[in-house]
Specification:
It is a single chain. The chain has helices at residues 3-44, 60-89, 95-98, 101-133, 146-163, 166-176, 181-186, 188-202, 208-241. With 247 residues, it is mostly helical. The protein folds into two domains: 1-164, no CATH class; 165-240, no CATH class. Helix 1 (3-44) crosses helix 2, helix 2 (60-89) runs parallel beside helix 5 (146-163) and helix 6 packs parallel to helix 9. The longest helix has 42 residues, at 3-44. It is flat, with a radius of gyration of 22 Å. The model is unreliable at 236-241 (pLDDT under 50).
């Protein structure tokens, strides 16, 4: 396919993704107040009784609801968006691989949403508890601004979702021949250091425990990705070594 036709296909994918995101965001707008109650629960549970959320602008709550609807709309539309993405790159796949587009889209969505849920249920409670407990005895009251808290929490949900795509990303690079099992294996010690650095940046609190909670699943995901590259890479080398007939 010529380069301009690739650009045209990409434009169609982007437009369809934006339409799906817009529809899903519109649906989530009706649920935004309830989703906000769910979103603020990890910090609300660990706040002292005299601490509470605040707003500093008249319509700040509505902008917060829109951001919630946009992010959760993306989660809702992620199966279709991932399907469009895998369909876009399918011309570069073999005929057998093209049949796996739907499963790949579903796996991508499950990993993305699963990463966000892991961040919410595992990392948020520990990180926010540390952020509150560190103020004990300081006579300082934590009055979190709603907009800032939502921005932090939503960014973390998206970050966790993207990070959980690591095995699929490594597998894709392995299929393209850009990474190999032995290379990933040799780089393991450097990746471990990098993972703990990323965990320290992403976790809401500077406590070691929440960083470890973030780093451990990343290490597991990397190991899973290595084994997937080992399996798919072996198949790729086997296919490349076979003589190709005329099309």
């Amino acid at each position: 396919m010529p380069f301009l036709e690739h650009l045209e296909e990409l434009r169609k994918v982007v437009l369809k993704s934006l339409v799906a995101l817009s529809v899903a965001t519109g649906l989530c707008l009706f649920l935004a107040p309830k989703i906000f109650l769910w979103m603020k629960a990890p910090l609300q549970k660990v706040l002292p009784e005299d601490n509470y959320f605040i707003v500093t602008a008249p319509f700040e709550i509505y902008w917060g609801y829109f951001k919630i609807a946009l992010v959760f709309g993306f989660f809702l539309a992620s199966p279709l968006i991932f399907y469009l993405f895998w369909s876009f790159i399918s011309p570069g796949m073999k005929s057998g691989e093209k049949r796996g587009i739907v499963p790949m889209a579903l796996i991508s969505s499950i990993l993305f949403v699963g990463g966000a849920l892991f961040g919410y249920f595992v990392v948020f409670p520990t990180g926010f508890l540390f952020a509150v407990k560190i103020l004990d005895g300081t006579n300082i009251h934590l009055l979190p601004r709603m907009a800032e808290y939502l921005s932090l929490a939503l960014r973390l949900l998206i970050a966790f979702g993207i990070i959980f795509e690591l095995p699929l990303f490594l597998t894709f690079l392995g299929r393209l021949g850009l990474v190999q099992y032995q290379g990933l294996k040799r780089a393991r010690k450097y990746v471990i250091v990098g993972i703990f650095l990323v965990a320290g940046i992403l976790t809401p609190g500077p406590d070691v425990f929440s960083q470890v909670l973030m780093a451990l699943p990343l290490l597991v995901l990397y190991e899973v990705g290595i084994q997937l590259v080992r399996f798919t890479g072996a198949k790729t080398r086997e296919n490349l070594s076979k003589p190709h007939g005329n099309d």
